[in-house]
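Minutes, project huddle
Topic: does the predicted pose make sense with S-adenosylmethionine bound?
PN asked that the exact inputs be recorded in the minutes so nobody has to dig through chat later. Recorded below.
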Amino acid sequence: MTQHAAALDLKRTRRGSGDALVDPFGRAITYLRVSVTDRCDFRCVYCMAEDMTFLPKADLLSLEELDRLCSVFVEKGVRKLRLTGGEPLVRRGIMTLVTSLSRHLAAGSLDELTVTTNGSQLVKFAGELAARGIRRINVSLDTLDPDKFRAITRWGELDKVMAGIDAALAAGLQVKINVVALKGVNEDELGDLVSWAHGRGMELTIIEVMPLGDIGAERLEQYLPLSLVRARLSQRFTLEEIDYRTGGPARYVKVRETGGRLGFITPLTHNFCESCNRVRVTCTGTLYMCLGQEDSADLRAPLRASESDHLLNAAIDAAIAAKPKGHDFVIERGGKPAVARTMSTTGG
Ligand code: SAM
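Predicted holo structure (tokens), as shared on screen:
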């Protein structure tokens, strides 16, 4: 063994086991979603209350700590990293983190680094994201109507998001549009959104509103079952079943008239946990093993307790060994939150 190889080997031993992550139900955990901030420049009505109290900045993991945490997961077999939030692109210095994480893409130890964004900062960042090896992003957009957009996001401007999407496409990024189906708000627009997205070469996924966090609005008023959405879309389009899966919760069809792909995420009408390959970390280093359960593990303490990654590795292993079998969203319980934290805390 050369001196360099021996040093690397020693480093690996010191850092921890690097064992692959497999939960008690035999599911390999290969996908990590990281909420890099709980802050957002929008206040979507189904996501946050208008007067949200955010975490003190001192509680947040630094960019270096986030990099170290993500890198340990990559060593342990995670192949896909998604940066989310809050709004990931409002975290100061976010491109420093993207740049440092992109080394795992270059090294072949990560298949994909990606971002979920509301699009408000894309004019500024799209080119840099593409230059760092990001190939695909998700942009959340629930309406094409500027007034409705303002009503849903409370603070957002549709023009800025549209310009951001243009910038992303011009930079060569593949864009997937995520739409939350909201009863009485955008339900009459979903077909137009499909045509618009597919017409611009973008995939679109429709998401059922999930009972997460107390956001001060009546859940049952927002809830629109996707079974109904799908039935209505079938009157306008020919939806062809396809065998496309990403290991995630979405189920896909091809729209014959547009040639585009349409996804449905139906946590409330369809249980997708059996194929779950993911866990989530918040910006304070709390690991949530399931979006819809309270089970969590603190990774910040072991991260900060030692420069070696042994403690962190042990904490991650113990957490994965306790990953719940599935979630427990039930809208019939009166729209009460299944878990107290909002999507912006856990990282949507
Ligand atoms: N700010 C980024 C964005 O807008 O995409 C990332 C974070 S946001 C929390 C991620 C996604 O979660 C968005 O598509 C948002 O619409 C969705 N979301 C938030 N709360 C939700 C809820 N209660 N049910 C379903 N989707 C929700």
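Observations noted during the meeting:
- The first helix runs from residue 3 to 15.
- The pocket of S-adenosylmethionine is lined by residues 40, 44, 46-47, 84-85, 87, 116-118, 140, 178, 180, 207, 209-210, 212, 343-344, 348 (CB under 6 Å).
No decisions taken; revisit at the next huddle.
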